[in-house]
Amino acid sequence: MRSPPQLEIIRPINDVMIGLGVIAGYLVGGGVHWMTGLVGFLVGFLISGFSMVTNDIFDVETDTLNLRMRPLVRGDMSVRQAWSLALVMMLVGLSISALTGPYTLSIAALFTLLSYAYNRTLKKTGMPGTMIVALSMAIPFLYGGLLASMNGILVGVMFMCSFMAGLSREIVKTVADIEGDRATGVKSLPVVVGIRPSALMSAGLILAAIALSYLPVFYGCTPYYVTGITIADIIFLFITGKVITMRGSEDAYRLKRAMLLPMGIALITFIVEGIV
Fold this sequence. Notes:
Blueprint: H1 5-10, H2 12-28, H3 34-58, H4 60-65, H5 71-74, H6 79-98, H7 102-120, H8 127-147, H9 152-176, H10 178-184, H11 189-193, H12 195-212, H13 223-244, H14 249-258, H15 260-275
């Protein structure tokens, strides 16, 4: 049975991961109040939902060309209804964020602005737009850290690892969308330089994130962190080999989904490290 279009269009799994990223940043930063963590989760979830909906609104043509049967493509939801949903999620998310102070509100507003700008125009700029998406995946950790006392080393590692792994996955996604991007004038990395160089850059980013993920070992971390991050990194290494040899959109579609597993394990590892 298909999910209601209002639920499908916000991509709740992505939103939950963004919300959990905020919680991870909050716990690692020294946060201890569950209500504050919940507020941070809701802000991340709602602003991410806004981003997902506006992405579908501006990507109707591309999604149609790429045969992605999203709610707007199927006609299960009108563009007007989608805008109403997006605006409600944005306003509620920013209103909740305002309760946590001006600095966190500024980060939430920046996240909102970047996601809208990307979805509206910056996606067609190629690599700069791809980097904005990766930055939006890393910002929740910074937001969560600001909610707490900012344990600089681990929050910084979380931010940078998330950015590099997210950028790697976004490059793989552009390989998956290469035909639609070519048809709609999107100057993505594989469109400009080809699939092979894009694959090598994606793999290099994964390797850099793996190396950086062990930095906390030198500053003190629990065995839980070492175990969890090692499991994630082993899976990332396996995927890296597949990324280097990917030939086209079919391989890229499989790999972009596969990369969610080690990213999820790393996220859980950061949360556990913050709790213990």
